[in-house]
Amino acid sequence: MGSPAKKSTSQTETALDPDNLRIGRQIRDLRKSKRISLVELSGKVNKSVGYLSQVERGVSALPIPVLQSISTALGVQISWFFHGSDDEPSNEQNYVVRRGSRRTLNYSGMGIREELLSPRLSGQLQMIMTTFEPGASGGKEPRQRKGEEAGYVKSGSLELTIGEQKFLLQAGDSFTISGDEPHLVSNPSTQETEVVWVLADPY
Fold first, then answer.
1. What confidence score (pLDDT) does residue 91 get?
2. 45-71: average pLDDT
């Protein structure tokens, strides 16, 4: 009996997480529309061409700091990659976000879901709610943005590391981070943590 046939690339990708595939395709399409090669993007975000190729195919995980770096390199806000419903009434689209119509971004394998609370994908401010599953973190490498950001812990606990300082925040606590401060966030508890972020446009 011969060995079983290998699955084709298309069959393998079909079985992958749909959010990873969607984000990967968005990155690829945006990169190509701006005529930026994988080699050029690799240099901008300090990641290998092989890894970025896997990201574009939805094969590799995409930690938040890496997606932030890719967003900056491609000249868009991270909220550009959010997926949402277009069913909201036209008179509300620029002003109101209904709970059931939030644009979402799931980080498969990381235990993190982000929901865009702002009604527009452009503007000077972005408001995002991040839900961390127990033990989830935003990645092992510090995250750093060009613009300022602030957060409010809606529920649960948040471990926030800014530079060499570490803080444990509880529901009701809030914080601010300047644009040049690398930071890490994680949920050290056994319950979900929800954090509402306000991000200033760095462009």
1. 81
2. 90
